Amino acid sequence: MKRKLMILVTVLFTVAGAAMLSLDLPIIRSSAQTQTQDVQKMPEVIILAKDSRLGQVTFNHVSHNSGKYTIDGTTKIACTECHHTAQPAADLADMPPLKTAWPADRTTVLTDELFKKDPKAAGVAACRDCHARAGATPKLLPAIPEIKHEASTAIIRLVNQQAFHRSCDGCHIEVRQQNPQSKAPSATSCVTCHKRTA
Ligand code: HEC
Ligand code: HEC
Ligand code: HEC
Ligand code: HEC
Fold first, then answer.
1. How far, in Å, CA of 28 to CA of 25, rounded?
2. Partner of 69 at 20 to 30 A CA spacing, among 19, 46, 159, 179?
3. What local confidence, expressed as pLDDT, does residue 9 receive?
4. Are 171 and 187 in contact (CB under 8 A)?
5. Listed residue (124, 145, 162) closest to 41, CA to CA
6. For ligand 1, atom 35: residue with the closest CA
7. Which of 51, 57, 82 best tests ligand 4's pocket when mutated (most atoms within 8 Å of CB)?
């Protein structure tokens, strides 16, 4: 009985899909085009590390920024926890090594409300636009960002690998310390994040 229903549903979707393809495609395509050109969207699930030999990383953006995932069980993770340049430079004064705002003269802090009101003014840049892969020149900066090592004089070049690992693992380590049952990936188990596609 269930199986028959499933087949029926599949057939219906296929028919509907075919109808859309034959009739509406030009209309759908043109409106999608104008939308992606004009409005930056809030991504739900992002595939990162597409060119990593270890395999890609599926990152659920909405689970991380909607309040579903929390560090302490109650507080929603702030957008700026990850999008660290999306706040005024003055606010970064007491968060070393962070100091760079983008755009440099911004006066707003990225929040869900700000983004919904005016995605353009919210000023969200992709991490890789600054934290480029080794050997590449970043789109928004003259060079790949560097910071001083916390415990020595060493300089850390924040290519994509360093930037993402520090940001993602930094939080997951804290989460796992507070809650050993947490689903947060382990920093030392690479395959909890990197998955090879078949
Ligand atoms: C846990 C980390 C994290 C949090 C919290 C977070 N984001 Fe993101 N966000 C990311 C990552 C990683 C990307 C992908 C960036 C890339 O492609 O380099 C991204 C991408 C985006 C993009 C698309 C940027 C583009 O490339 O066009 C938007 C818009 C965005 N986030 C908005 C928000 C808003 C608004 C909030 C707060 C409600 C938020 N994010 C909270 C990590 C986060
Ligand atoms: C506009 C350029 C720019 C963008 C976009 C950007 N960063 Fe950065 N990032 C920097 C710079 C520059 C530094 C060095 C510190 C500073 O000047 O603020 C840095 C530092 C860092 C650090 C080191 C902080 C520490 O305490 O270890 C991490 C981690 C990081 N970025 C992760 C990310 C992630 C993840 C994203 C995307 C969600 C991102 N960055 C987006 C420019 C950028
Ligand atoms: C500020 C804290 C924080 C940051 C930053 C963060 N995470 Fe998480 N992450 C969490 C928490 C909390 C959980 C969920 C724990 C639970 O529900 O048990 C989680 C769970 C996950 C999971 C397992 C569950 C799932 O959604 O598949 C993956 C994979 C993951 N994070 C990837 C990432 C990646 C990749 C980044 C960096 C781009 C990142 N996270 C940055 C806090 C964070
Ligand atoms: C929290 C999830 C997570 C864990 C755990 C993790 N990574 Fe990653 N890794 C990422 C993300 C996200 C990126 C950056 C992706 C991007 O630039 O799109 C990345 C990038 C990389 C890159 C650079 C890929 C490239 O060529 O641009 C390498 C290499 C890498 N990781 C190796 C490792 C190794 C080795 C481990 C285990 C010790 C590990 N990763 C654990 C999430 C993770």
1. 5
2. 159
3. 44
4. no
5. 124
6. 112
7. 57
User: What are the pLDDT digits (tens) for 84-94?
Assistant: 999 999 999 99
Nearest to 178 by CA among 81, 74, 96, 78: 74
CA of 179, closest atom in ligand 3: 18
CA distances from 69 to 49, 76, 168, 184 (A): 22, 7, 13, 9
- Whether 178 has a pLDDT exceeding 90, the answer reads yes
- Is the C-beta atom of 56 inside 6 A of ligand 4? no
- Between 161 and 32, the higher pLDDT residue: 161
- Distance (angstroms) between ligand 4 centre and the Cα of 97 equals 22
